Amino acid sequence: METYLSLVVKRSYPDLIIYAGEVTLGEKVRNKKDSKKRKLEKTRITQAACALLNSGGGVIVIQMANQSEQPERMGQDLETSLRNLIPSLDLQAFFETKQQEDKFYIFVKSWSSSPEDDSTKPRICSLGTSLYCRSLTSKVAMDSRDAFYFLKKKKAYIKCSPTDDRAPPAKIPRTMSQKSLESNPAFEIFQSKKLEYGQRLLFSESTSIEFKQFDTENAQKYMKDIIPEYISAFANTQGGYLFIGVDDKSIILGCPKDNVDPDSLKIVANEAISKLPVFHFCSSKDKNKVSYETRVIDVFQEGNLYSYLCVIKVEPFCCAVFSEAPISWMVDKEKGVYTLNTEEWVRMMVDVGPEAASNDLSRDFECQLSLSDSPPHCRPVYSKKGLEHKVDLQQHLFQVSPDCLKYTPESLWSELCSQHERLEDLVNQQIRSFSCGLLILSRSWAVDLNLEEKQEVICDALLIAQNSPPILYTILGEQDEQGQDYCTRTAFTLKQKLVNTGGYTGRVCVMTKVLCLSSQNNIETSGSSVSPIDYPSSYNLANIQEMQDLLQALVIVLLNFRSFLSDQLGCEILNLLTAQQYEILSKSLRKTRELFVHGLPGSGKTIIAMKIMEKIRNTFHCETDRILYICENQPLRDFIQ
Ligand SMILES: [Zn+2]
């Protein structure tokens, strides 16, 4: 894993913020710039944008190097590199820019394979796939979509083949290909001991044959450069022969013997090929590499050794061969920006969930969130048929009505107001300018999101209102320096979960605000910025539909649990609690010290118990081994552990 020191991830925001350092902006100024520096800047922006697309979205902050300029645009090269990352030509679909004083902001929305047509699309954004194939007489770089279909086909093929360990499916195509490579006219030349300079070969380039001439100045470097892509192309198609030292009219030239020694050519080829990353879907236990053979053949002119011809015979590969690791990034508040390795990349690319795999699932379960139109980190969500759909759950728990701002749950609100005299005035002051939406109260939004509680917090209130971004208010009794930290961390986690668990694909950032009951200053400071970055108005919830979409994502965030079916299906899927289960879970642990839950087998008592234990841990800050769980059988005990 390689991390990028030049890209700094800032921690003090409720969103993923990447500082990309100083960059020159504006078409004219950029053109005047040294091309090397320009390229470095472009690389930084591309990496940051790709990482944010793959990690739920966020903001790139650029320090403008040319402060006197007022660029309306970033510059053609930067725009093109951003456009190359996304599936549509419309930059606005994923990026929005804004200049504020000497800072330039690029707001990045999460990647999602938009469901505008039915075909499934790659689940992550990549700058390059490093996968090649042969098409007629050329080597072609696969783009993300080609690679997605190629990998899916390979995966499906391996799945269909008999899975007998003694005869791995990989062997079947290999023996067949052996024959076809040997019946290829190139095979005879491949086996020759010597050849004649200027001789014309009796075959030309084809899907399985490629001619390259030596760059005789630096033969070894040239080989090292061309081999990865050609070997990947042949191995991913039907195999073939790479001739180095033949011109495109099939004439043998070779590399003059004075420029190179034949053994080193072989070594260079072997080294280059052994480095190629491979990925197996099959059960190839020894993690087989590409199988190939390199020959260096003497070429004579008028009876004297004149040059060398290098031929590499490449067998078709069972799975996928890359020219180098695929080019894609992710970002994490802890790890910073990092590259995906080949294994992670393929797993994310071909992750299509269990839809295709299991008929039983679609018979008994209803899909609530499918992978085909959700952000990269999402897991599919199913609920048992007959149970409430996420839309019903949202209507039940978080209903929004036009021209009405509601506080929910009402019982909690009246309880809090009766306990804290000034609370009602303080909160009403804050939200009186909003007319439509919901204020969702909780004793601790942190605990609801599986974070640790902060004791000084009286309550947290999440505002989902029209013409506003979501706002998280943390209400404290006394001023507290850590209050803002707590609020930011909670809002950050909420945003991440709305996108990466709840599958929300719109633009979103949860703003933060700390209020204090004892202080008189709240009202005056209410004008101060909720976030130091001024987000564009597209981050506001524009209408009821958008609010409902966000609230349905919130339902998944709050009610999801890992399905027992996950292990059986070999792929993680989530289920949802019912509204009744969620109500049990929402009871205050400080007030409700005893709780009897009666239910038939399979009605979800264990899940509730697990969720409550999680809550105990976060509310009372205790270690796992201080919680006692008693049950009647061993499998259940092992499962909980
Ligand atoms: Zn394989």
Question: How do the strands and helices of this protein lay out in sequence?
Answer:
Blueprint (H helix, E strand, L loop, with lengths): L7 E3 L6 E7 L3 H6 L2 H20 L3 E7 L11 H8 L11 E6 L2 E6 L23 E4 L2 E4 L2 H17 L10 H12 L3 H5 L3 E3 L12 E4 L6 H18 L3 E5 L10 E2 L5 H13 L3 E2 L12 E10 L2 E11 L5 E2 L7 E4 L3 E4 L2 H8 L9 H6 E5 L11 E4 L5 H8 L7 E4 L1 H10 L3 H9 L5 E6 L2 H4 L8 E9 L5 E6 L6 H18 L10 E6 L5 H4 L18 H16 E3 L2 H5 L4 E3 L2 H8 L18 H16 L13 H7 L1
Parallel strand pairs: 2-3, 8-13, 9-10, 20-21, 23-24
Antiparallel strand pairs: 1-2, 3-5, 4-5, 6-7, 10-14, 11-14, 12-15, 13-14, 16-17, 18-19, 21-22, 22-23, 25-26
Helix pairs in contact: 2-3, 7-8, 11-17, 15-17
Zinc ion binds next to loops.
GO molecular function: endonuclease activity; hydrolase activity
Protein name: Schlafen family member 9 isoform 2
Organism: Mus musculus (Mouse)
Compute the number of helices. Answer: 21
Q: Structural class, judged by helices and strands? A: alpha+beta
* Percentage of residues in DSSP E strands: 15-25%
Low-pLDDT sequence parts: 163-172, 523-530
Number of strands: 26
Biggest sheet statistics: 6 strands, mixed
Tell the overall outline: elongated
Radius of gyration, in Å, reads 30 Å
How many domains, as an integer?
3
Q: Give the distance, in angstroms, between the N- and C-terminal Cα atoms.
A: 31 Å
Write out the distinct hetero groups bound to the structure.
zinc ion
**Average pLDDT for all residues:** 87
How helix-rich are the residues, as a percent range? Answer: 25-40%
